[in-house]
Amino acid sequence: MPATPAWPPQSTPRLFVTPPLVAGMRVIDGPQAHYLGGVMRLKPGDPVKLFDGVSGEWLAITRDVGRKALTVELTEQLRPVEVVPDLWLCAAPLKKGRIDWVAEKACELGVARLVPVITARTIVDRLNGERLHAHMVEAAEQCGRTAVPELAEPVKLAALLREWPVERALFFADETGGAPAAAAMAAHPGPAAILIGPEGGFTPEERDAIRAIPQAIGIGLGPRILRADTAAAAAVTLWMASAGDWGL
């Protein structure tokens, strides 16, 4: 006897939508309607998965396909919203393309919050928050997340340190040397953040200011000099492996 095909299929399109989802009919329009109808060529009866970051992931069945909009019926909740590991990534903005990559990988790796941090050597003077959020949404759609990381407003390093939460460990990538990252992270469980500097690194004065925070722990990321975007992905990976939701 042949096996019953999985429903919905693994190839079912996933979309992030707002506001919160509830059972019943819903109209999808704009670029998302073009993607589903024009690119994916959904027809009445085809499934689509929707998630909103609040109520989890839902199965919706396409009921009507128009030129500018689709009507779908939300029939069941497939998964509740995920429990997100309590990790912030605080990273100095990089050049276009590289900061987009950081935002994308932060979402894929499971970060809860992305905080752009302005430092003395930050060379990017304007950040496109809408573009960064769009990259994280696309990453969440592709990697199966049911929650998109929060994108904070850019903040100057001094202000970030001045208001640092007392209960949150601050692991900062210290190019002058620090404790092995994996061991340091395992020794400090609980809410955490990873701070990554710009292409030119932190100034000596900035490193002194960071070290003055009681929650700060300088970490090293191996024997080689890493680009800022690589350092961000490497540090998040180590934290997820030791204290996050990877179960390693």
What report would you give on this structure?
The model has no long low-confidence stretch (mean pLDDT 94). Strands 6, 7, 8, 9, 10, 11, 12 and 13 form an 8-stranded parallel sheet that branches. A 5-stranded mixed sheet has the order 1-3-4-5-2. It has helices at residues 30-39, 98-109, 129-143, 157-162, 181-187, 204-211, 228-242; strands at residues 14-16, 24-29, 47-51, 57-65, 69-79, 87-91, 113-118, 150-151, 155-156, 169-173, 179-180, 192-196, 216-220. Helix content is 29%, strand content 27%. It has 7 helices and 13 strands. With 248 residues, it is an alpha/beta fold. The radius of gyration is 21 Å and the shape is elongated. Strand 6, helix 2 and strand 7 (113-118) form a beta-alpha-beta unit.
Short description:
The chain has helices spanning 30-39, 98-109, 129-143, 157-162, 181-187, 204-211, 228-242; strands spanning 14-16, 24-29, 47-51, 57-65, 69-79, 87-91, 113-118, 150-151, 155-156, 169-173, 179-180, 192-196, 216-220. With 248 residues, it is of the alpha/beta class.
